[in-house]
Amino acid sequence: MDTNVQKPATNRWLVIFGTVLIQLAAGSFYAWSIFNNGFMLKTGGVPTVVNGVKKIVGGLPAGSVSFTFTLGMLALSLATLAGIPLAKKYGIKIIAIIASIVYGLSILGLTVIGKDSSIWTLWLLGGVILGAMNGVLYLTTLTNAIKWFPERKGLISGISVAAYGLGSFIFKFIDQAVAGGAGAVTGANIDHVLTWWGILALILAVVGSFFLKDAPDDPKLASASVVSSSDNDFTTAEMLHTSQAYLLFVCLVTAVMFMGLLGAAVTNMASLGTHSPADVATWGGTTAAATFVAIVALLNTIGRFVMGWLSDVIGRKNVFFITYILQLVSLVVLVMTKPGSMSMGMMYTVVIVLAFCFGGNITVFPAYVADFFGLKNSARNYSMIYQGFGIGAILVGFLMASGNPLMPAPVTYSNGAVLTQNFTLVYWTLIVLVIISLIIFATIKKPVKKA
Prior knowledge:
The protein has helices spanning 12-27, 36-42, 62-90, 92-109, 119-148, 153-179, 190-209, 219-222, 236-239, 243-262, 266-274, 277-283, 287-314, 316-336, 344-373, 378-385, 387-400, 423-443, and strands spanning 46-50, 53-57, 411-412, 418-419.
């Protein structure tokens, strides 16, 4: 044993504590769907019953308001390309503090949305700025945390990404509690809810930022239990000259597309599979649907922690084989079952499996990229491959809307139900992509850096 190797001077777990606080704040963005109706009502929408179904007529269009989140996902991934180099140049703490303040202020800025507001104002504040700051906070702190624990990359990724998922789960209940009554965000209370969200997220993120410290590039300076891996450290340019980078990009796009099913679309997906056409459009507003969404979000979070830890034990590739095969089986069940004929128990099983596996996949990817291309440049390298996140989010958004997110075409299913979400197209596209991803994982080999 080398007695000259000293333990790191920094308490690494304090860095993880700060990271968790920031991830909780950043993850709150994923509770966006509960604000859609509120923005429509505040901008002039009026609740109306059409053919026995409650709808909001007027105000900003529903498709345009919900597209704000999709736009945010694209801004999130693109912003990581700038956030990682800035954190490298100025330090993780400074960048995190600035991003935290802008993130909180952009939420507070959403209170200016009113009857005369353009959709472009909502897209700028709630999509571009909020999404971009979310991406900077998420990926810079995640990759920094992993570098502090080179011997436990999967576990630390699991803790960090689980906190990100937990942020949505916790803030959804906080937002509903602040809204009062039945927990619905309306035109009358949306500003109050946004103010609380903005202040709490800002405080959490700023406080967490003060616990951050830049991880050393050399793994042995972070942990005495590992040796330096400089021989396997690819620069971003070197990584982009390997086929593995593009193959992993395809696999990440596939993994992220499941977010489209598990986000705002999950209640309609469950309703379509288990209810008659007359009840499909109304089940999403019931208490049972809210419980369903909460359980899905919880299993998503649990999957992030469990599969991150398991990837350190059985290997990242084995975890991907487990998750992608389970997702493939779940998709086959969905396409083979006639709409309206699935039991709620089976629907719970299918969606819980999809949520658990999605959480695990999105957690293991940064550690897998670090395994392939080294830790030294892992933040910049993963920020490039992470662009698959934005591509996957946009792709599933267009597929779900049959090619037009702003004016989705109605889709008539075999049981007569009519929705503007094309689940069949998404299911079959994902089946093809999951099979391709499994072939990639079966054949891909760790790249060898040229001397």
